[in-house]
Amino acid sequence: MKKKAFLFDLDGVIVDTAKFHYLAWRNLAKEMNFNFTEEQNELFKGVSRVKSLEILLDLANYRATEEQKTRWLKQKNMEYLTFIDGMDEREILPDVVRVLDFLHSKDQGVALGSASKNARPILKKLDLLSKFHAIVDGNDVTAAKPDPEVFLKGGEALQIERSHCIVFEDSIAGIQAAKNAGMLSIGIGDTKTLGEADYVFRDFTEINTDFLINLIDK
User: Fold this and answer.
1) Catalytically annotated residue among 11, 16, 58, 198
2) Residue 127 bears catalytic tag
3) Which of 10, 38, 85, 166 could form an SS bridge with 114, CB 3.0 to 4.6 Å?
4) CATH homologous superfamily of domain 18-84?
5) What is d(CA 3, CA 27) in angstroms, rounded to the nearest whole number?
6) Residue 159 Rama label (left phi>0; alpha psi -120 to 50; beta)
């Protein structure tokens, strides 16, 4: 059996923290007298906090000072952390643990590749830290997806060639990052949104053991 690297995004793949991001950004948008919608929140998936604020300012047509931007970034993160402080293992998305455990049982490399700077505390809160051989998050990279840096570093951390890496993502920017890295991409979510991926599944309940074995042996 071949040794592959399986790289997982966090938000929307391992756990649904997108709702917490949305609530925090929506509250911030109110200070700009702007009604931030869930549809607009889709633009923030797989994007860094700084870039997300820039997108929000553009949407709201709001000109902010650097001092305001710094304050708002801290404010948004503090509110988000307050939301995730109440998380527990019930927040893990369906069948994620089953897939992670299966990959471990087959001695495969498993890493996290996320833009979130809160990835480690979230995984600790969910008791998932031990499921990952390596974690690359927003504290370890300088370029946001669709730049492939986060996944390239994940593959390097596992010492697996990029052609043997498989990425699980829920955002188009993440799928593009995987492709830019020369890695196989698996979209988790809507087929229409993630059509660029090599495979798309609604969630991990649709990913069976045979499919995973085929990925390993491919």
Assistant:
1) 11
2) no
3) 10
4) Putative phosphatase; domain 2 (1.10.150.240)
5) 45
6) left
Looking from the CA of 171 toward its CB, the CA atoms found within 13 Å total 25
Report how far residue 133's alpha carbon sits from residue 212's, in angstroms, rounded to the nearest whole number.
18
- Decide if 207 contacts 201 (C-beta within 8 A): yes
pLDDT tens for 16-67 read: 887 898 999 999 999 999 999 999 998 887 788 899 999 999 999 999 999 9
The string of pLDDT tens digits covering residues 104-155 is: 999 999 999 998 888 999 999 999 999 999 999 999 999 989 999 999 999 9
CATH no., domain 5-16+89-217: 3.40.50.1000
Query: Is 203 designated active site?
Result: no
User: Which pTM value belongs to this model?
Assistant: 0.84
Q: Burial letters for 46-58: b for 16+ Cβ neighbours within 10 Å, e otherwise?
A: bbbbebbbeebbe
Residue type at position 215: L
Q: Which residues contact 58 (CB under 8 A, 6 or more apart)?
A: none
